[in-house]
Batch of 2 targets.
Target 1
Amino acid sequence: MPSDATPHTPLPGPARRDVVRGAAVGAVAATATVTPFALSAAHAAPTTGFLHGVASGDPLPTAVVLWTRVTPTADAVPGSGRGPRVKVTWEVATDDDFTRIVRRGQVATGTERDHTVKVDASGLTPGTRYAYRFRSGGATSPTGWTRTAPAPSSTPSRLRLGVVSCSNWEAGWFSAYRHLAARGDLDAVLHMGDYLYEYPTGEYGAGETVVRTTQPTHEIVTLADYRVRHGHYKTDPDLQALHAVAPWITTWDDHESANDAWIDGAENHQPETEGAWADRAAASRRAYDEWMPIRLSGTATLGDGNQVYRELSFGTLADLRMLDLRSYRSEQASYAALGQVGSPDRTIAGDAQMGWLKESLSGSSATWKLVGNPVMISPVTFGAVDAEVGQALNDMGGLIPPEGIPYNVDQWDGYTADRRELIDHLADQAITNTVFITGDIHSAWACDLPKNVGTYPFSPSVAVEFVGTSVTSDNLDDILQVAPRTVSLTVEAAIRTANPHVRYLDFDRHGFSVLTLTPSRAQMDWYALADRTDPASPVRWSAGFETLPGTQRARRVWYPAT
């Protein structure tokens, strides 16, 4: 078993809620006004030009979204509302010298969109690697590299996706991004949510330590706040590097707006002092639309809508559905009313998204049916019994959920009617090779998804789930302030004993994952940082699990996919 990540040639160019969420520590007083954007040391000079890097995303066979931000004057910093309206030229080429330009265009940007630029470069060739760049006012951006999706009728021999989530600026350095960028073999990067965090400085760092201070220093609530925070994150050189080497496919979870968000509010939102939730949610989504290389409601045009759930295809090898499990969900159940988690009146996905998801899975002819899933779907419960027995007990008194006592009601365990509807659909329609790719809970998991959790493993599994750990956000050992692989081992053993479908669990490591798909298998490899607080931290392969076509079960492998 190798001790380090497999080397690759770099591409050219640049409860968590109840188990892994601690009390706020080291609180620093928040200010009442927007803190001016502060450039990181890496960007102390120059003060104009393309200071926030470049990015691409949502690859289609003939199109890809290209993104940048231009700083036309020194005072035109994110969230400031200052700076002139300028024209920006974008170019796409098949070489990094841009001697073979295949597409170019010009757009205008200004304060109305925080000087961001987002275009849908179309008319491209399927399955092709391209260089791209931007120019404005004599400045030229760094060169980015992207790749279009394969042609719909093609069958790629391999698809390799980086998987990241939960990247908290104050808790550590983004070394995971640097190591992913250096691999040179990624077709795309999936960010499964919590791209940034909304907290004031000191409230959600590394245990009791703020490794590096975020901007603004107060909790972000307004549009200007969210723009400043997005801009600050994109000064990180490791984040810029990963954005520049491959297209990203993203979804939001809760911290892009506020912790434990639901359709009408969030745990970390106080209407009496922070205004209406609808206004804050709209501000966070507008900033996300401006600052991320994503198509919302199907377009790269700002303001066209807020629909994040969407589908992308990679030939006949795989298709990918990215879910939004915050915008339509019911409020989380309280632990005093756990018997309500299975109520059919409660939803995590919303009727429209659930209908779309089921239809998409039924209509897919791809070998692998991927579901980008912001919060964990596999049941993690204590005292699970046969489904019929559990439902009978629930009907008798409403005291316990039919599928056992959940440890985290913010994930699908708190919305079991929706989960049952989806599991039954997979089983009844004989849909195979479904793989859920998940973030959110700052830990690594490999799970089977049982048809009936109470009788597993004697009942079938309908899918598998691979959960990636956090880039930097606190894991269990960080919160408890104990050595890794000590106390966590006992907790992991207890969870696995009560949940035999959980095949792998690691509560302690930070890093990233790589999902490799071929016609004969899907393999998730987890890579662990030595120290998230060390900007030069090395990384090593820590575990791998695969699933084979038709099995709907995860099994351990002892080497990374090559």
Target 2
Amino acid sequence: MNAPTESSTESAVLDWFERALEQPAGQRDAWLDAQALPEALRLRVQRLLQTESSLGGFLEESASAPEPEGFPAVGEHVGNYQLLARLDAGGMGVVYRARRADGSYEQDVAVKLIRPLHLLAAPEFRRQMLARFEQERVLLGRLQHPNIARILDGGRTASGLPWLAMEFVDGLPLTEHCEREALDLHARLRLFLKVCAGVQEAHRHLVIHRDLKPDNILVTRDGTPKLLDFGIARTLGEDANGDPGATQLTAMTPAYASPEHVRRQPLTTASDVYSLGVLLFQLVTGERPYRLDGLTPAEAERAICDGDPPSLRNALQRAAKDDPASAMRASQLTDDLQQVVAKAMHKDAARRYGTAQSLATDIERWLQGKPVLAHPDSVGYRMRKFVGRHPLGVIAGTLALVAVLAASGMALWQARQARQGAADLREMNHFLLEVTQASDPFDADRELTLSEALDVAATRIDERFAGRPELAAELRFGIGYSMLSRYRLEAADTQLARALAESRTAFGEDDIRTLRVGDAIAYLRQEQDRGQEAEAGFRNVIARLQRNRLTDDPLYGNVLGNLGNLFLVREDYRQADPWLRQAMAWFDVHPDAPANDRANILSNLAHAAHGLEDLPRADALYARAQAAMAIAYPQGSPDQAILLNNRALLAEDRGDRAAALALHRQSLAMR
């Protein structure tokens, strides 16, 4: 093992020193003692804290501490500005309020200088700090945006110390402003959109802020947020080895740092998106998603990288007990907004919003009452060892309309005389055509998606099909299933419950159309984490299909597989295996059944065999499933990518690392 270099040691000292500065002043020593640090490192940081405390007197114009050579004092000039008073000090710099002193015009500015403490540090440490300070000046010079504090001037003092003059922002930190002004949820989100605009501007110039937090976003008296402190920002794609002064220092605010930042991995714009997600969580709930006070670094890293934050609703409900403002925000909250925050704060950077603008766009959609684009993870993604969920019948609006029309037409022709069925079909056609016309930009102020058009259709069923439960049930089932596929669970629950009641009225408890709705509701309960209700629902549908001799219907094969998959998600492989075997047996005697359903059952059965440690059988089943999916999805699919990944894990367990690597690469390429 190589010995640590002076540069790496000094970087570690700075990292821990800046973390300690985040703690309340009276608790820093106790916090530092609680960290699992090497004794030499702990003593170095403790000495810096002691020196920092003594230098605080110097910064207030006390003579109790020695002045670093060449460092300007309050009242002196820096460039064309006179230092008036100290405003704040962070991990790297100290900020003064200053005023233009050359008489050309009156203007208050914020002048930033490197912390005096850092000028007393070891030479390598000082060099890194000076380089990082210079980088901030370069980066700020690129950014001109109403939501970013502008750089106005810069240079070096007579002793050669860098300084920069910025727009003076007379305001409050973002969260404090929202509380003081008692902003409701919609007002907070509209303010947050301006923050996103500033971050997007930085990203447009390939600048990652890396320290987005309320204290670095001040809101002026007119309600304009301003991004501050690009001291640890860096350029996207910058080589960490190319500029030690700019990149080796690992300062951060852990409470707002992304998992990849905490792990010291390469950062992208998605890292800032994560921090925006934490800010959004705090604006909505009044608290941060993770409570890190008193945790060791390892515990904090586990909390951020592996822990699950509370849902917005749970956090707000806790706060609402003692805070009427939180209760008001809780009443405005919906599942869609929770999905937006979850996507922004996803552990996997690739699963977050690609840009700050994408996040802002979804918030704007929510504010306008439109469906958001954020979708939750599938079981196959959230649990690497699990296979993907059974594909939902309606993926996009077009398919939803076709499925509703086809299913309704078939049901009606079977249930009624040809003339009546044709008349009903015409009526449903007219209704669906009216829905599609809602997406015509000539008739609306914009072009609606078909998914949005279906949402509109759901509100019109009662009016259009009053007294016709057989038609309303079929349409509502198709629309409710579409909502389920888009993970709009509350809306899907409403529509499917209505569809079940109408189907029972129109067709009876044991009709295949009623049982199809029952299967969808059981699947909805699974998605709602109501596992016992889901299991009871699947078992009830299976029993009714058997009792009414409807086992040749494709619903029977699918619901057997759905129940098996429910046990698979629970990792109860012994119960999953027999149900999946029954499902596979049904598909074996029904060769005309959909090929994609057959392939997914094979894949699920292979995963159950893997869980039971029957590795040869699992490999044989994976091979069959892979061949079946190649036929069903010649261009690839998410289910196929999950299968390849699961087969790669099996290859790892069998010790075949070369095969595992090849399968992982295939899965990654397909994803």
